[in-house]
Every structure is written in C-alpha cells, then in structure tokens.
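Instructor's aside before we start: the two examples that follow are unrelated to each other. I chose them only because their records fit on one page, so don't look for a connection. First example below.
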Amino acid sequence: VVAYASHISRSADVTRAAWVSAFCYIGYKFLNVAITIVQVYEIHSLDALADLRLLINILLLASGCALVVCLLQALREAFAARGELLLQNQALRASRDRFLQVASQTRDVIWEVDSEGLYTYVSPASREIWGYAPEELEGRKHFYDLHPREGREDVRARAELHMSRRQNFVDAVNRLVTRDGREIEVSTNAVPYFDDSGAFCGYRGTDRDISKLKKARLRQQMLIAAVEHAAESIVITDPSGVILYVNPAFEELTGYTRDEAVGAHPSLLKSGRHSEQFYQDLWQTLLAGDVWRGHF
C-alpha cells in the first residue's frame, strides 16, 4: 500500500488515490462487522481475532495514507493552478497596460464595435479628434451615427454589406461629423474579430484624421500647378547644386529638356561672360540662406 501510495504521489493521480482510500475504508468497515459477528456468536479463536484486528489496523492505516496522499496532491495541484493563474493574470495586466498606454498616446482613434455596429470601446483620442468622450459613445452610439445625415443610410448599408462578408477595411475614407458640428475626413482600417467558438463578434479598427493632410496635398497640387504654368524659368537644386527640377518655362528659354537638365549642374548654362567671383558670390549667398538677386 505504501509503495502504491508513493507511485500515486509521483504520477499525480488524485482520483486513483481517492479510490484506494475509499477501498481501504470499506475493507476496514467490513472487518469491523466481522469482529462484531465473532463476538456475538462467542467465537473464541483469539488468534483469528488478533489477525482480524491487525488487518483492520493495516487497512485503516492504508486508508489514511491514501487519503493523505490524495489531499496533499490535491493541494499541490491547487497551488500550482493558482500560481499559473497568477502568472496569467500578471501577463494579462501587463498586456492591458501596454495597450492602454499606446491607446492614450496615439493620434488615431482606436475603436471596437459589436456585430450591430454599436461602439463597445473607444480610445481617449476621440476627445481631441471627434470631440466625444469615450463614455458618450460606448454602448450609446453606432458607427454610422457619426456620419453626416445626408448619405448616412447609404454609408450604413455599404458598411453592413462589407461586415456581412467579414471583409477587412483598408484605408477607407469616410466623412464624420464632430461634436461641434465640423466635418472631417478619416481613413479607416479595421478587421473582424470572433469569439472562441468562431462566432462573429464585430470589428476592431482605427480612424485617422486626414483632413489636414488632404488640405496640404491640395495646396501642394496648387503650388505645383502654379510653378508648372509660370512664365518665369524656375530651377530647384540640392545643396550641392545638382538640378532636381526645372519648369516648362526653363525648357522654352534655354532649349534644354527636363531630362537633360535634371541631374546636371547649373554650370551647363555658363556663357563665359561672368567671372569666377560672380559664381562664388552667388553660391555663398545661397548657402548662407539668403536671397541672391542678379542677371545672367
């Protein structure tokens, strides 16, 4: 019995230990009944009684040993499970803290919606970008509620069709209305998420305000158009003097094509009518960050 209890302890089989304990206890009770019968019928075989009592004590001891092994092993498993659970909880808290730190500092709104499009999580950036506090949106508004009234139902229908197909949203441009009534444009990226059973739960994603970026690009396009259509010859070089850009007026004035000029130095336009000092003064002025004025 001791050897078997030792094997149970090494194999960490608590159920087997419980069965051994139960079996020994039943044997102990059965032999007690046997002794009672012997005493009632006045069977005076002392050797038999002594043997029975010895066997009872052995079974009682075996039952106790198996029960102790069972309890100790159960405690060991309980402590091991508790330790593993504590480690998992620590890892989960660390992961949550990392996410919250990133979410609180990023310039994008991080969000989660359920399968109906209702916000279940919104990051703190929503205050600055949308004008809404997270608690004003979570459990209260659907994603389409932030879209302009005109065209809202169309946006909702297209988004729900996309969601029904469980497709990702990649750089989808949307117009949103902030809390103070301003319209902004955002770039949306999102992916569907599922529970452990594989059932669709909703979407998780980000919204980035691209309103300023689009305005900057528009201004850039306007500047490029102005330079391209200017009547004056315009040349752009790097700090070492290598030509990076010439406008059409340069091509018309000099006869050099853009392909011929880009990558060359302005010295290709040297006429031989200016001294070296003239060109030194020009470059020293430009490299100092000042404006050079003169005639070629």
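Example two begins here.
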Amino acid sequence: AYLKVVEQEFLGWSHQARIQNLQDGLVFLDQQEPELKLKLAALETKRQQYSSKYNTTDPLAELESLSSSLAERQSEIQQLSQVRSQLLDTKNSLNTAAFLPLSFSANIISSASGSTGQSITSGSSSIGYSSNLQLASKNDADLQEFANLEQKITEARSVYSPSSSYLKNLLVKRKQLIPSLQKKQASVLGDAINKVSQDLSLANKALSSGKFRYQELTNSLKEYNPIISEKSLATASLNALIASKQDFRLQLAQNSSNWKILAPAYVSPDPVSPNVSSALLQSLLVSLAVGSALA
C-alpha cells in the first residue's frame, strides 16, 4: 500500500512539474516574441531604405537580367559596327566604280528586305533600313531604263559590230544614266550610314549605362546581403518561436503526463543486503590475512 502511494505521488509530482515547465516556457516565449518582431521590423525598414537608395527590390534578379542585357547589347554593337563598315565600303565602291554593278545592287536590295546577303537587322530590334536601304527600287524608272539598256546592248553585241552607230548610241545612253543612279545610291547609303552611326552611338551609351548600373548593384550587395541574411534568420527564429508556443499550448490543453507505471512496485521476501554468508566469508579471509602478516 505504501509503495502504491509513492507511485501516485511521483506521478502527480512529475505531472505538475511538467505543467509548470510548459507554463514557464510560454511566459519566456511571450517575452521573446516582441523583441523578435521589433528586430524583424527594423530589418525590414533597412531593406526598404536600401530599395529606395538603389531603386531596386531584388538586386540579384536585376543583376542577372542586366548580365543578359549587356551581352545582347554588346552583340548588337558588334553587328551595328559590321553593318556600318559594310555600308562605308559599299559607298566607297560606288564612288570609284566605272559602271553600275547590277548584281551588287540586287544584293543590297535583297539584304535590305532581310532575305539574303548582308543582314540589316541587329539583335531583337531592326536597325530600320528594311524600307530605306535600297540602292534602287525595282519600280525606279532609271533602273528599269538601265536594265533595258543592258539587255539591248547584250542583244546588239551579238548582232551588230562594235562600230555600229546603234550600239554606240546604246552605250552612250548607259554611260549617261550611270551617274544619276550612282548619285541616288550614294544618297541612300549616306542616310543609312548616318542612321547606323546614330544607333551605334545610342547602343554604346546604353551599354555604358548598363555597365555602370551593374557595377553599382554589385557594390550594393555589401549592404544588401547582411540585411537579407539577418532578416532570414530573424524570420526563421520568429516562426520557430510561434510553432513552439502552439506546441506548448497544445500540450497544456491535453493535460497529459509523460510518465507512467510500467510494472507495480513490490518488496522481495529475500533481502539482498546484508548477506550473512558473504559477510562471514569476508571476515574469515581478512583474519587469515592479518594472522599471516603478524606471524
């Protein structure tokens, strides 16, 4: 009966101790929660100040986007430079040409429409010469006349002798027509070169601005990373605190004990100690040892 009372007393004491510990834990967590919320609010204020200072909400995402944009811009500048160089070479060839190269003219027209030859489109945006960069239009009267003259001259050479007045007249007309066509071509090419030069200048300015922004954001990460790191830790701590409070309240509501009696206590009829036989044997051995030592 006495052991039964001891069992119940121990269970009651352990249950009350557990309840008290849970209540003390809740009090402690309630004291810590406002401090964590204040710290989190202060970090959020810092993050907003950073965003206002550098005009960005997510510098890492913006840096990734800028990196891609800068690569595209550099590719665009390279292509614009190539187009400008090709246009300058074309203009120089027109200035030195003794006759109008129809095949070359057709190639430029084809390039302007974006089909074959030299591409006049850079990156994701058109440079803007699809309708303007045509050395001659198929509907141009001078070009049509020139093409007709070329055909007639070819036919005349197969029929008439080089001294033929008909052939000579055709050659004179062609010679008189070439300067007019070349002048038109030079004018169109000049406008195209100016437009490319302007676009190239704008692209270089955009690239310079993008590089400056990229460097600015990269340097700002020294401010951004500590804020985000501390805020992440504070958020995790607050979430863990709230979860602990919910768990403590649940355990208090259940009002359960974490101790139970696995087997009832009992008193053995045979005492374990003292053991008379063992004690007599130990005494005998000690006596013999002392006697031997005195002898």
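Confidence is low (pLDDT under 50) at residues 98-134.
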